Amino acid sequence: MSLKLSSRHEWVMQSEIRNMSIECDRIGGINLSQGVCDLEVPEIVRSGAKEAIDNGINSYTRYDGIDELREAIALKQKRFYGMDVDPVNEIVVSAGTTGALYCVCLSLLEPGDEVIVFEPYYGYHVNTLVATQAVPVYVRMSPPDWTFCANDLERVVTAKTRGIIINTPANPSGKVFSYEELEMISNFAQKHDIFIFTDEIYEHFLYDGRKHLQPAKIEGMRERTITISGLSKTFSITGWRIGYCICDKKWSQAIGYFNDLIYVCAPAPLQMGVAKGLLELPKSYYDGLTLEYKEKRDKICDALSNAGLEPYIPQGAYYVLSNISRIPGKNSKERVIYLLKKIGVACVPGEAFFHDDSGENLARFCFAKKDDVIDEACKRISALQL
Ligand code: PLP
Fold first, then answer.
1. Residue 276: is it exposed, middle or buried by C-beta count within 10 angstroms (0-12/13-18/19+)?
2. Cys-Cys crosslink for 335: which of 33, 155, 329, 379, Cβ 3.0 to 4.6 Å?
3. Which of 127, 233, 235 is the pocket-test mutation for ligand 1 (most atoms within 8 Å of CB)?
4. What digits encode the pLDDT tens for the residues 165-210?
5. How do the domains of the chain map onto residue ranges?
6. Which CATH fold would you assign to the domain 7-41+284-382?
7. How far does the centroid of ligand 1 lie from the alpha carbon of residue 201, in Å?
8. What CATH class does 44-280 carry?
9. Of the candidates 299, 310, 304, 298, the residue with the CA atom closest to the CA atom of residue 361
10. Is the CB of 171 under 6 A from ligand 1?
11. CA–CA separation, 273 vs 269, rounded Å?
């Protein structure tokens, strides 16, 4: 038989995060590897979806999302960031942030186009580029604050550079890009005439009084910025698959057509539930999220410090990278397996966030877990004897 897998399948590897979850399940450990928040879904979001099903909203929707949701997203942009967005022409609802980014890459990048990615990165960003035949090019950020400078960007730019991916707040580093950094990236994008793709899925997870800043709002950046976000994290609905992109109408139609081709539409009644949540949840809901997650962040960072595994305190999102060099092992994979076997807590090896073997001394712990789970994990980490 001459049938075989496509060469494309080799480009996209099984994520280390999924591997750790499988290993963790096998030994019945506490899983702090995957970014699946097991917190309560807001009642208004759940009932909105249930009512939509009962009211017959069960068919295909417009390829770029139902009116109610696009309007709710436009209102949210105005409410939180003072940005005017046209809900008819400038928003495409997709199958999660992941689906939105995939359609964006298919619509705006040629095979061979280079896209700058900050490292440590979120693996799906890199794999989405690779799957759509774009070429990721890396700029390394330095701990503890995950800094970089304009020269780092200039060093990697070529005639083929077409875009740069920002993730703020970032997975896995928890970095929140400052205004000065966003301005520096914006100047760079204008100088080299490239797109900014900005993944803002953790926009409501900010600590210590930080504010979420959108590159699209920086003067002159609107047209070349594609803002991507979703509700998986904000409403704890990772399985619902609702995300979107906001962009100039020059780009939105093609992005919408790819969305139609690949997903047809995001799930109709779930779009309705999310629209209800966006429209009706008060400010206190978002403030509550920040407070709740800050407490979890502080607990896990304290536990890691107690164990001598220096945490790089996250400014946002719900992951913490920590220095695990004290744990026995040749690389981060061996170290996290040692940790899992010793105390039954799973995390992600740092190498999953770098294109080379950097990250061998890092591990990522997700703290989007219920308090009893976090407390037990912290108890075990604090008691770790190395
Ligand atoms: N973007 C980032 C940076 C993430 O960390 C994740 C999930 O972990 C996603 C996107 C996935 O988002 P969605 O569920 O909307 O596809």
1. buried
2. 329
3. 233
4. 999 999 999 999 999 999 999 999 999 999 999 999 999 999 999 9
5. 7-41+284-382, 44-280
6. Aspartate Aminotransferase, domain 1 (3.90.1150)
7. 6
8. alpha beta
9. 310
10. yes
11. 6
